[in-house]
Amino acid sequence: MSLLLEVWKFFCLAIIVYILALAACSRDSRPDAVTAATVRKGPPARVLLKKIMPAAADDGVVKIAVLVNLMAGENSRQFIEGCVSEGRSMDFTVDAFVSGADEKRCREIAGGIALADYDGLIFAYGDVGFSYDILKPIADKGIPVVTFEALPYSDGKSIKGLVTTFQDDYSLARLSIETLLSFNSDKSDKKARIIRVGCEPGITFMDRRAWAFGEFVNHGKIEEAALVNLAGLGNPHGAAWEALAAILPRFPPGTVDGLWVPWDEFAAGCAEALASAGRQDIKLTSVGISNDGIHRMLRHPDIWFASAAVDPKLAGTVNMRILAARLAGEDIDDTFLFSPQLVKTADLNIGVNLGNISVIVPGWGEGKGLFDNYQWMIDLKAAAEKYLRITPVQEAAP
């Protein structure tokens, strides 16, 4: 009897040992929740980044700096929002800086970026010489640079590997001028008398837009009735108002067919000057758009008819895609132009702003097909969107 009891105890002990060993083995080989999520959804974005752009992601993260040389405002905010949202969709870390249009401050920020551990830079708004000076040290460190509305050239020299993007100023000007001329299409006289607002030569984007206006004059479609020549870009609203108001008495009603303004900041002052003088007979079109501009267009719908513009958020989005393509080793042309769209005052309402204007302006902000057809980018965005890290299952405390 005692022998049977000993055998039974040994048999029970062996079963217990086997069950514990089986449980331990099962626990060691069972995939945790993180592994299960990875199997279900594919590798996380940071794993893909190391394959797609190994040099940039060698420390596990791709770090991008965005430097905008503008005053803090709606345009700079929209541009940065486009950069940041697109960068984060690819699992980049994006830091944004606004210099306040202060060149000294901009140089300081650029110097800090050159010393920091960034993998790429997007720079927006800078003149010839100045842009070159602040970007050359960054590019010399091997950091890819993409610019928007900047001219990083000096004495005929450019920066190797740089990609520059611009608003298509000639198309912007032509679209707004053609819209202005359409108001006079029923007149027998083919040459419209237009007052033009402008600046002294040397402001590049203004020079390009003035050149487009000159083409209409040369082709006999426009007679320049007067030039409202402003000194520069400082205090654009007040300067435009005062300068236009000063010449209006020279042009009685019926002697001018329209007013063309190459920058919406000037257009705001011009619209106020025309309204104050009771000159609803003069219609204006402009170039550029902002939330403040939208409000002023609605305030003076009988004067300010339309503005040709490029979506600043889309510009930020596309600049980030171009930089990503550079980091991934894609062959990219060194220049890209953004095509304009026309914003008509008649289509606006009090609830419209740059954040929702796409509802009423067809195609506004549409970036489909602009540097987004790379399969690696599609996969990267899908991984960044879908991969969710789930905390592994914790064993109950004994």
Q: Could you give a short description of this structure?
A:
This protein has 398 residues and is an alpha/beta fold. Helix content is 44%, strand content 17%.
Describe what this molecule looks like in 3D.
- This protein has 398 residues and is α/β, with parallel strands linked by helices.
- The chain has two domains: 49-168 and 312-332 and 371-384, 3-Layer(aba) Sandwich (Rossmann fold); 169-309, Rossmann fold (3-Layer(aba) Sandwich), CATH 3.40.50.
- 44% of the residues lie in helices and 17% in strands.
- A six-stranded parallel beta sheet has the order 2-1-3-4-5-11, sandwiched between helices. A six-stranded mixed beta sheet has the order 7-6-8-9-10-12, sandwiched between helices.
- Helix 3 (45-52) packs antiparallel against helix 13 (375-386), helix 4 (74-89) packs parallel to helix 12 and helix 5 (103-115) runs parallel beside helix 6 (130-140).
- The radius of gyration is 30 Å and the shape is elongated.
- The model is unreliable at 26-39 and 388-398 (pLDDT under 50).
